[in-house]
Amino acid sequence: MDHITFLVAVVIVTALAFDFTNGFHDTANAMATSIATGALKPRTAVLVSGILNIVGAFLSTEVARTISGGIVDDTLVSPAMIFAGLVGAILWNLVTWLAGLPSSSSHALFGGLIGAVWVGAGSDGVHFDKVVEKVLIPAVASPVVAGVAALVATYLAYKLSARARQDSVTKGFRIGQIASASLVSLAHGTNDAQKTMGVVTLTLISAGALHHDAGPPVWVIGSAGVAIGLGTYLGGWRIIRTMGKGLAEIQSPQGFAAETASTTVILTSAHLGFALSTTQVASGSILGAGLGRRLAEVRWGVAGRMVLAWLITLPAAALVGGLAASVVKHGGNVGTAVIALVALAIAAVIVAASRRNPVRADNVNDHHEVTLSNPAPTNVGTAA
Amino acid sequence: MHVDWSALGKVAAVSLGVTVAVVVVFTFGVLGLSRAEAGNSGSAAGRSQAALCFLACAAVVAYGIYLIVPQFH
After folding, report:
1. Which residues in chain A (239-268) have CB-CB distances under 8 A to chain B?
2. Alpha carbons A27 and A235: distance in angstroms, whole number
3. Where are the transmembrane segments (chain A) (predicted)?
4. Is A146 on the interface with B (CB under 8 A)?
5. Three-state SS for A248?
6. Chain B residues with CB-CB distance to A under 8 A?
7. Distance from B34 to chain A by nearest Cα, in Å?
8. pLDDT tens per residue across all 384 residues of chain A
């Protein structure tokens, strides 16, 4: 039983690593527009967001139950498959971060898991009807709903405030943005930290350490919350730039409308147990807010690239997850170690590549584009 | 395959309604604030309009947090 315990430990560490990438990938969802409009200083924004993520993680565990008992067959899943799935998710998160693309961490996670379980246990292990119901339909519906809500709200906000003193309006909405962005962070914590909790719980169930219908233990909730909070505090500045500056020119009333729409969509769906993507909701809101102000510039090229990334996120992560699963399946513990080392090496290459054209707290608002001076490392990441 | 359309519909309707309501009420609050800052005869009325609207928004936020925390209900 010793090697099972070791493997379970590796899986839990990998899950927390994924949670960390999820945090810095998704800081932008809550804080990008507040940073872009100057409602919050960049450093303050990520600190507030990180703390609220941790608080949010403790508030609700409804989605954590949905995932561990939903899209894959719990009885067929082994810790090795979960490990392979997480590797797929982490690598895809890093590649999209390098490109500054706000893709969905949730879809990366689901994709990785689906690929790994498919290779490891056959297609019977994947509940495709649940994938459609719990993942794909919310993925299509939620950005549209958030976008329409933000569009209508933005339009009305500008229409109503057209004759007021513009300095008062800007100031008022900036203060409102602090509140609405904080709520998005809180909702992000309740929604995304739960995904890691779900994965760790699934691991513990498959290792026989927890009962089949068990919820996440307190230490799982705590460590998942802290991992996502730390990741958020680190700040994914590349993605913050794309969402705050790249998609549209955002003013404070638009930022407030976008964040309010994101919060409501995330909170109502979390309440009903849908595991939707915070990233897609927030992007939909920002596009809606961009369209709601007449003459506001929406950069459709950036939006198009982002939607393309959404479409390939699940299959790409599934491919990497499936590849990793086949190595782990045939290589046993050695295979696991090899995959872990290869994943670490690729992660190091991606981080090194990001240093060539770094985006930081002090230059995040300077441009609206995230570029690489050398595109080669991206190819390494996708090829893995 | 079972898709819970009514739950999805509820999410859509509630999200649209709440977002628009909160932003409109908040905008009225900002308008009140703007009148108060203009400093003429409508100053006091503007301030109370702002206070009332922001209070309403705060109440919605509090209700949202209440919904999220299972321990509250």
Report:
1. 253, 256-257, 260-261, 263-265, 267-268
2. 6
3. 44-64, 76-99, 105-123, 135-158, 218-237, 307-328, 334-353
4. yes
5. strand
6. 1-4, 7-8, 10-12, 14-16, 18-20, 22-24, 26-31, 33-35, 37-38, 57, 61, 64-65, 67-70
7. 5
8. 444 577 888 889 999 999 999 998 888 888 999 999 999 999 999 999 999 988 888 887 665 555 545 778 777 788 888 899 999 999 999 999 988 889 888 889 889 989 999 998 888 888 888 888 777 888 888 899 999 999 999 999 999 988 888 888 999 999 999 999 998 888 888 778 888 888 888 788 877 788 777 778 889 889 999 999 999 988 788 899 988 888 888 899 999 999 999 989 988 876 676 667 889 999 999 999 999 987 677 888 889 999 998 899 999 999 999 999 999 888 888 888 888 899 999 999 988 888 888 888 777 777 777 777 644 444 444 333
Q: Which of A266, A264, A281 is nearest to B63 (CA)?
A: A264
Hey, how many other C-beta atoms are within 10 angstroms of the C-beta on B61?
A: 17
Tell me how close the Cα of B44 comes to any Cα of chain A, in angstroms.
Answer: 16
Strands (DSSP E) contained in B1-73 are: none
In single-letter form, the type of residue at position A233 comes to Y
What is the nearest CA distance from B72 to chain A, expressed in angstroms?
10
Supply φ then ψ for residue A215, to 5 degrees: -90, 175
Q: Which residues of A touch B14 (CB under 8 A)?
A: 264, 268
